[in-house]
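@here heads up, posting the sequence + SMILES for the zinc ion run so it's all in one place. Ping me if the SMILES looks off, I pulled it from an old spreadsheet.
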Amino acid sequence: MADLLITGGRVIDPSQRLDRAADVYIKEGKVADVAAGLAKKSGLAGAPRLDAAGRWVLPGLVDMHVHLREPGRENDETIAAGTRAAARGGVTTVLAMPNTEPAIDNASLVAFVKAKAAAEGAVNVLVAGAATLGQQGERLTEVAQLVAAGVAAISDDGRPLMNSELMRRALEYAHGCGVPFIDHCEDLHLSGGAPVHEGAAAAVKGLRGAPWAAETVMVLRDIALCELTGARVHIAHVSAAQSVEALRAAKRRGLPVTAEATPHHLALCDADIEGYDADFKMNPPLRSPRDREALLEGLADGTIDAIATDHAPHGPGKKALGLAAAPFGVIGLETSLAVCLTRLVERKILTPSQLAARMSAALASILGLKGKGTLRRGADGDVTIVDPRASWTVEADFESKSRNCPFLGLRLKGRAAAAVVGGRIAHAL
Ligand SMILES: [Zn+2]
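bot reply: prediction finished. Complex structure tokens:
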């Protein structure tokens, strides 16, 4: 457990409505004080220091949608490489999704990932447990055992739980065990495995498209099951305007439903897909400009609570198969903060404080993480330091083991200058 004094930065902590110049003192891994002039205190003269002059100091970013691929697909990503990618992007806590090989559907696999993360992880790793055995959508896992083993959420992400009766029971178990259920909303019959959104770009490219309704019918179903069970339902990677509208109405009625959007759906639309480049292929697909506008509105008004990457590494060979045949998914950990600073804060869609809320406090709240998403005294000493003026171009020199990034070559403004995890510097430029 480390001590650290972060000096001279602009501390932005929406959990305390704080936005002012201050020093942050972390003692034995926990936030001990946030105040101006700490650097001059004689008692702290010996503490290790990190200069944050000209920079923003935020509660450590949380990313609740990350595929670390271990066990089983270590050629695409590992816990070690994926968490180094997180640190470089300023993310201090990730939630690892369970669609590994084998799927994380029992307590011993949860223990494996947690042990590996403790030994090799550069940042905090939380684990989501599968909802069904092998994520086959047929038999429920032992949710209580998974929660006892320490999972932070239940999800079959990568796949939807198509059987609504099973979904109802999974929600009841998750609710009873006090963890949220994260759903990948997709009606597989409607989407039909189509590689892109059903719209103008699909027509021009001569590809099959997945309609927006493939997502929205499942969002509406989940809202109904949320009302039926009272369980906390979190909708992953919202992409369609009609889904945002459904969520807005559900929240107005006070239902405990939350939602996330990804940086790629917030920054890009189907018109941005370059040729047949599979680095623009993900599930759900990039949708129309109107859908993207609706996501931005939903993010600004709080209908969409959080930003999460859906970091989905695939080795280069697989993505070389082209749009139609390549697997779904793009990496995002090393670009999420910078893309959001450039496209959301620079363009005044979110204030810096709102961005901190959407990338940290909101996710800590959804996952019920007491010591995260805040720089209150006693909170975990996880801090993200932002250089808001850094100007850089995304290049394929990623810490991630994969290179499937739709933002390659993009000029961005702002980036993570440092990531601090429990008072220890996990990344610094
Ligand atoms: Zn998904």
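MO: The chain is about 30% helix and 25% strand.
MO: One more: The domain at 4-56+380-391+413-428 is CATH 2.30.40.10 (Urease, subunit C; domain 1).
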